[in-house]
Each structure stands twice: as C-alpha cells, then as structure tokens.
Specification:
Length: 165
C-alpha cells in the first residue's frame, strides 16, 4: 500500500502525464494545420508515449492495492508562432516533468518507500532521454529557421522515424 501523500502525488503525476499527452496532441494538430505531416506524426507518436507513461503509473498504483483518482486535463494551446516556438515549449514541458519526477523520488526517499523509489528509477532515466530528444529536434529547427527546403527534409526525416509508435 502507498501512503496517502505518495498516492496523491502519483495521482497528480498521472494527470500531468496525460496533460503532456494532450499538449503534444495539440502540437500534432498545429503541425498538421501548417502541412508539416512528418512533424505531426512524430508529435502524435509522442502523445501516445506520454499516455503510456500515465498508464505505467496507473498500473503501479493498482499493483500497490490503491485506487487511481482522475482529474480534469487542461485544454492545451493549439497554436504556435513557428516549429521552433512549439519545440521550445515542448522542451520546457519535459524539463517541468523532470522536476516533478525528481520531487516524487525525493518524497519516496523521505517516506522510506523503497518500492516506489525503485519504480520511479525508470522515469528518471526516461526523462534524460526525453530532454535530449526534444532538445535535438529544437536545435535542428532553430538552425533551419525559414529555410523551406531544409524544413521539408526534416519533416520527411521525422515522419519516417517510428518514434512513439
Ligand atoms: Fe512523460 Fe515526456 O515525459
């Protein structure tokens, strides 16, 4: 069983991962709208990945014989100034998630909750990869700027990757 505090924090994290999923779906819609289908598919794939993160915690809460409580998911923004703007926001969202995961680890340590501490290690490693992934695309779109040909090439590259699927 989880402590009340730990359960509340894990439920909040489920909501946060679902909100990230929705945010990336909003970004997928934005990219679709500006005819960057490769970017859109990539973001839709990442949206699924975030939903998977939420479900990983969801399953863990039940494994611990507790109960999940769901809450409202905030409506995401659906419009950005440019791909750079969108990926800048995505990286900020990932950095926020990293902070939340680290806070959960600290809480698990404080509560001597060894099982949750061990469970969270997957997320700690995942966040290093996530930040690196989003930053690598951000750096590329920054370099490309308004260069249409290069943007199309990156769109093709992202669309061909099976990220998130
Ligand atoms: Fe669930 Fe992209 O972190």
């Amino acid at each position: 069983m989880l402590s009340k505090t730990m359960l509340k924090a894990l439920n909040a994290q489920i909501n946060s991962e679902m909100s990230s999923s929705y945010l990336y779906l909003g970004m997928a819609a934005y990219f679709k709208h500006i005819n960057l289908d490769g970017f859109s598919n990539w973001m839709a794939g990442h949206s699924k990945e975030e939903w998977g993160h939420a479900m990983r915690i969801w399953n863990y809460v039940y494994e611990q014989r507790n109960r999940v409580t769901l809450a409202d998911i905030q409506t995401p923004t659906e419009s950005w100034k440019s791909p750079t703007d969108a990926f800048g926001d995505a990286l900020k969202a990932e950095e926020r998630t990293t902070g939340q995961i680290h806070a959960l680890v600290t809480l698990a340590q404080k509560e001597n909750d060894h099982a949750t501490f061990a469970f969270l290690q997957w997320f700690v490693t995942e966040q290093v990869e996530e930040e690196q992934l989003f930053d690598s695309v951000l750096q590329k779109v920054k370099l490309i700027g308004d260069h249409y040909g290069a943007l199309m090439m990156l769109d093709h590259e992202l669309g061909a990757s099976n990220h998130g699927s």
